[in-house]
Specification:
The protein is 10% helix and 27% strand. It has two helices and eight strands; from the N terminus they run βαβββββαββ. It has helices at 11-18, 124-132; strands at 4-7, 30-33, 53-59, 72-77, 99-105, 117-120, 139-144, 150-156. It has a five-stranded antiparallel sheet with strand order 1-8-7-5-6. Strand 7 (139-144) and strand 8 (150-156) form a beta hairpin. InterPro entries: DUF1203 (IPR009593). It comes from Rhizobium sophoriradicis.
Length: 169
Amino acid sequence: MTAICFAAMPTIDAEHLWSGGRDAYDRLPETIISDGPGHPCRHCLENIDEGEELLVFAYRPFPELQPYAETGPIFLHKRPCKRYAAEEILPPVLTTSPDFILRGYNEDNRIVYGTGAVTVIDEIAAYGQKLLARPDVAYFHVRSARNNCFQCRIDNIEAPALAEIGALT
């Protein structure tokens, strides 16, 4: 059985934005106030509480531009937060919806066709293990089933994870 780990947005990307850096579209992030659940921080993988300031910006969780490098809006606490560390445990943000899209990518960061599936929370780990057992799947993304927003990346625990390799810098 393949062991999986949940990888949050790299700290280098979060620090880039916290220090006034630009997003994947070369724009400054927008600051908004959270009105409660529904604003998951992609760095700590927790929901941003009502009344807290957050950044909303375009994020591309891929190392370079290419046709499969999806870019979309995500949220980040405006004040620095600690990166999600319990890599083998389902992160808190993945308990806020009944299901998510899981999609596999190969070593060249291209979608592996046939791997995308709307997956209920209780089956995320099992489907992830199934995907990562395939030789053509290097990692996969967990995305919102309703809006397709990037939530986190899942890697084989034995393989090098997204770790601190940034996408924005």
